[in-house]
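Example record

One chain of 157 residues, shown exactly as stored in the release files.
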Amino acid sequence: MIKRIRPVIRVARNEGEVRRHMRLALSVRPEEFELRGGWIPVVDVYETGTDLIVETELPGLTARDMVVSLSASRIEIKGVKKVAAVSASPRYLRLEREYGAFQRSVALPCAVVPDKARAVLENGVLSVIIRKMRGTRDRDIVVKIQKTEERSGGHDG
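Predicted C-alpha cells for this chain:
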C-alpha cells in the first residue's frame, strides 16, 4: 500500500499551529498579534484570594511615560521608553537595551472590577493590583435531562 504524503498541507497546518501558539503565548487577540511597538515588556500575572496582580518590568520609565487601560477582561499597558541621554556621539560597542514605543495587552483569567484597580511603579516594576469580581467562580452544575414529551409540552412536531 502506498501512503500519500502531502507536504504542502503539512506545512500549512504547522504554520497555523505556530501562529496559534504565538497568539496564546503573547495573550493577544488575532488582530493584535502584530507587534505595534518597538519592544514587548515581560509580564507576570498572579492572584491572591481577592486580587489579581499584573507585574510588568519597565526599567527606566516613570509614571508619565506610560498609560494603563483596564476592562473587565483585559489590561493594556503602553508607552514609550526614551533612549538614555549620553555624551555627544557615543560609539556603542554593544547596545542590547530596547527603546521606543511599546504596547502589551493581556487577557485576564477572571472577571475584575476595573474601578477598584491601583498601580504602583517601584524599582522599574509596575504592579497593577485589580480586585477580582465576586461570584464569578466557575462551578459545575447539573442540567436535568427532560423526556421528549416533557420538553415539547404536548405539541407534536
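Notes: The chain has a mean pLDDT of 78.
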